[in-house]
Each structure stands twice: as structure tokens, then as C-alpha cells.
Records
---
Amino acid sequence: MSKESSNDLVVKSAPHITGTMTKTRLMLYTFVALLIITVVTAVLWWPVTTPTEGQIAAFKLTNVWALPLGLIVLINAGIAVGISVGIDAALHKVTADSELNTMSAAVFGLIVTLSYSLGVPAMTTGSDVLPVASLSAPGAFFYVAVISLIGLVLFKKLAGLAGRKYVNPAATAKLIVLLPFIASIFLAKEHFASYTEGGLSLPLLAGPLGWGTAPNFLAIGNNGLASFATYLAGSYANPAVTTPVATPDNISSLLILTKFHGWTGGASSLAVIIVGIGLFVVARKYIKWRITLAYFLSIAVMSMIMSTVYADQDLLLRLLFEVFIGSSIFLGFFMATDPATTPFTGIGQIIFGVGLGVLTVVIQTYMNFFGGSLLALIIMNLTVPLIDRVGIHKPFGR
């Protein structure tokens, strides 16, 4: 006879509860979404050959292949997905503890592809420290392959066996592999220095931004060698265009519709938004959309705060950059919502998204690291064990 009193509430499993969504199906939906973005990027970038003949001559390049940028995207995707799926299958075959996750590995491969930067900016000259070879073929193929290998083995498989994945595998692997380029990617002083001094000559984000004044578009508040809008035009315009025009319409078009440099997945912010929302609708109960919403809202608020603090010419330019730069828009929809490295509770996801947005703007503003969202994501991933304590209800019954 049971010793339970009439006041006891006994909680047991409910085998009658079933659902149609499985991990494999969710990964399949995500893979299709990422594949659509990959194809859209390849189509948009196909007419552009990188590096251009002028850049090859300026850099005296002998170890790069001048290929259509769209073709490089497709080859990168084949390499990353092939390596990820192949290693996943091999580990499953030789290691009893390694579960076979073909679709998850394929999704990881596409995320590596779409979070990798390609294309050489139009304003890049022979004195620039930008690692041109890593943005072109065949250098890009090597780095994508190494990132896929390290990310899948160390941060996906081994971390999973340890019980918990603490950081986003693709983001962390990319950060580690690109450490040799720390001077040109992460160090602010190299970003601020002029081309002739071996830097990237980026306009300072910790200062007033503006469109400049025609015809020279000079800096506002002595903020770099050119206005911020002019720099964006030179960075994201078609590299075959020798004198990109910086106007509100052109900059908006570049940042929202088609960028020709930067994260592959952020080539078209509009495509990412449409596909990302579509995925959220299809798998709305299983995608952590609160993170994405909180992330972009906090970025917008932080952008307006920075514009006010530094007396920007208007509120639009900085806002367009912070929200629609390729790293922010793609990461917000497809990396920040990684189920294994983000908070479980709803309130925790909001806290995570806000922290991610604030850190992204702060890093981009004071380090002049345009891919600040990548570093911000890894930092926020490490706070998840603490954030997960917020909003978890105490168990009841026994």
C-alpha cells in the first residue's frame, strides 16, 4: 500500500504528450533557411570578380585566384559542409560516445560559411594591412576548412561530451583561427592608423558621424580621413566601382540590399530578415526569437544613445550601420539563437539579447572592431550558466 498522504502531489512523466517537431526536423528547417541565404548571396555576388585586376597589381599578388565572388561562396559552402558532415560521420563510426548528427553538422558547416568574410573592399590599396589573401581564393578555402575542423571537433563534439557547450562553436573557432590577424582585425590602434602608417584608416566610431559635405565629403569633427558614409561606400560597394558615391539612398541600399564585402551571410540584410522571420514562423515554439528581438532593440537604443552623446549629423547613419552590418544582422538571427549555448528561460533570453546588443555596440564603438558582435556573443555565452538561474521556477511536488 502506498505511504503517500492525500496531501502529497506526485509528479510523474506524461507519456501521452507527443510532438511532431524533432531535433532532426528543426535542423532540416534551419539548413534550408541557411541554404537559401547561401544561394541568394552567390547570385548577388556572382558578377563581382575578386580581387580586381587593380588590386592584384597594387598588392603585387601572385598567390590568389581571381574568381567570381559567388563561386567562392559556393566552394566555401561545399568545403565547410563536407568537412563537418564527414568528420561527424567518422567520429560516430570510431567513437561510441559520438552521436550521429548529420543535419546538425550540415547546419554548422553553412554557419561557418556564412559567418566568414569575403570580398576585398573597393578602397583597399597596396599599403593596406587588410589580409587580402584570406578574403579571396584559395586562401578563403583553407581558413573555412580549418574553422570547420576546429569548431566541429573541439567546440561541438568534445564540448558536448563534457556535458555542456559553453560557447558558440562557429564563432569561437573563427576567433581562434583568425588570431594571426589580430593586428588588423582587433587592435584599435591599427584601425585608427592611416594606410601609409600600416593601418586601416577607419573613421572613429567614438566620435561624431555624418555624411560629410559635397564634393569632398570631409570628416565631421575631424573623425578620420573621410566621412563615415564615404568609408562605408568604399567598404561595401562593388569593388569594380572606383568612386563609390556616399548618399543616404546609396548607403541604405548597400547596407540593406546588397553589400559586396564582409560576412557572406550578411550580403543582403533583407534576405536574412525574410528567411529568418520565415524560420521563426515555421518553428516558432522551438526558436529563441526573444533573443533576436531583444538584441536588435538594444542595438537600436544604444545606437541612438551614441549618436546623441557624440552629436552625430543625424540618427540614421549610425543606426543603419549598427543594425544592418553583415555580422550583426546574420548573427542576430542564426547564431545568437543557438539552442545549446543560450539561456533556457524566457527572461534569461531577453537578458542575453540585451547584453549581446549592448556589448556589440560598445565593442564596435571603442575597439573599432566592425565584427564586434562575434566577440560579444562569446562573452555572453560564458554568462549563460548565471543567466539560466533567472526565471527558473522551483520544483513542486516530489
Note: The chain has one domain: 23-387.
---
Amino acid sequence: MKKVIAILISCSLALAASVIAQQDEQQQKQKKEKAPPAKSQPVKSQPANEAKPAPKPQAVPRQHTETNAPEREINAAKPQTGEPTYKPHAATKVPGREPGHANANREQTEQPNKEGSATNESENANKPPGPAPANEREQYNRAGGAPQPNRPNPPANKLNAQKKPDPQTVQRIKTQHASFRAQPKPDKVPPVQFNQSYRISGSQQWQGAQYQVFRSYHPEWHDQNWYHSHFNRVELIGGGYYYLNNGYWFPAWGYDPSAQYYAYDAPIYVGSRAEPPDRVIANVQATLQEMGYYQGEVDGLLGPLTREALTAYQGDHGLYATAVIDEPTLSSLGMT
């Protein structure tokens, strides 16, 4: 009985040992299956008559120029991946434009246009200057003259704006208008109407004895007897009656209601020679026309264009902008 038991025990041990051995073998096989087998790279034999590719030359940075190589050549040496590697090319460094250099902030003068050409800065420098700005007169007045709003017809050459008119030109103009007579033009220059409460705008700020007549002026309505009893000279000039008083011509409102054409209601200074006002106005218009201030017709009427030209001239020459012919303006024009 003991022998049988011993045989069974030995058989059980042998069977257990064989089972353990089989498990070890299975584990080793699983490890071998997980590890990838090393593949040997086949060596391609190069034909004897085939020339080896020449090595690519290394790029040498250029100076004073901009790299214009296509993007494909720039990216050819980059490793190919799933994502695109194209990037904008950058210009090579140019001497004088490195950070910290005096010209580092200077803008590049060549920019490609629609056809692919470049615009040179020197070409732009040689282009003629464009038209003067619309507010050239305001800029000039801020630099030296008295600023005045709404100044039409600036002088063609602003460097001559402060110069006086040529005395020979003034004398020639006076000779041409020695027998000038103005005619009423209500269609072009509408007349003003009588207004007893009318005062010349801005006259209270005009300082000096030469402007006292404008500060105190107000229209008056009288008949012919009153005017003849107060003034020695009353004349029909340019469609309306005027009376002369101390070197000034004034509108004679009420002298003849059928002849009351006045382009402007204000005194007109003519000086001690007491020339007719239409002749003096024509001389002033022609002189301002020669200087580039007045572009209208020489008609001897103190209309809106003439008053605007006077305002511009007076402002450029440091005078009060009275928009009328006063003593300082006539003296500045060389007509006193």
C-alpha cells in the first residue's frame, strides 16, 4: 500500500513539473511575438555608369539686395511633414538697416505694384508738386498776415502778397479810367435797400481816426433841399445820388427815389481830390485784378466780389477788413 501511494505522489509531482514547464514556454513565446522582428534594409546597388548627384551648394547671404527666391526652393530643404511648410520669405540683412543703425527706421523705397514693378523713391521726388491746398490763404495768414474768413481769389504768387502795387501800373490804370462812368447793373449786382437801423458790421472794433466815419455811419432819408443846404456837391453816379463830405462819398437816400441804385450802403473814401466814387472803385478793381485778388468785371460798382477782394487784400496787408474803400486801404494801394 505504501508503494502505491509513493508511486501516485511521484506521478503527481512529475505532472506538475511538466505543467509548469509548459507555462514557462508559453510565456516566452508570447514575449517573442510582441517584439517586432528586426528587418534588414536591403542595400541597393548603384550602377557603375550612373553618376552620383552633385552636392547642393549652400546658400550664401547676399548684401544690398532682397531675396526673391520662390518659396518652393526655400522650403525644399525642410523635412516634409503632413502640414504645409511654406512661409513668406524674408529679406536678407542689408548694411545700414540693422537694429540700432541710424537708418534702421527708414522705410523701404521699393514696393511692388500691380504689374510687379517697383516704384522708386527718387522718381516720386522728381514729380512736380500738386495743386495748392484750398486753405492756402489761411495758412499764409497764420504765418504773417491777419486771418480773415472767406477770402476768394488768392494771389497767384503768395510771395508778392505783401508787396505794394507798382506805381507805374497804378498810374496807367488811372489814365485808362480818367473818363470812366459806372452804369447800374441790377441783374448782376442787386441794389441794397434803405434801412434806418443799419450799421456797418464790425465797425465798432475798428480803432483809429480813419475809421470813425464808419463807426458813426447810419443811413438818413432827406429831400433835395436838405442835401443842397448841407452839402455843396451832390451828383448822380452809377444810378444813385451821392453827396461829398470831407473826402467821403455817401449815398443820398431820399434825394430822388427813382434813382436810388446803391450796390453797397457805406461811405467811400476818395481823398482830397474828390474824384467820383465810381472812378475810384474802378481804379481799385483794376489794381486788385493786377495783383490777383479780383477776378470780376471792372464796373465801378462796390458789389460782393469787389468787397471780398478788398477783404482779402486788407487782411494780407495788416489792415482792418472793412470790405470797403477806406483811407488806409487807398493809401496802401498808392492811390491817395
Note: Residues 169 and 287 are 8 Å apart (CA to CA).
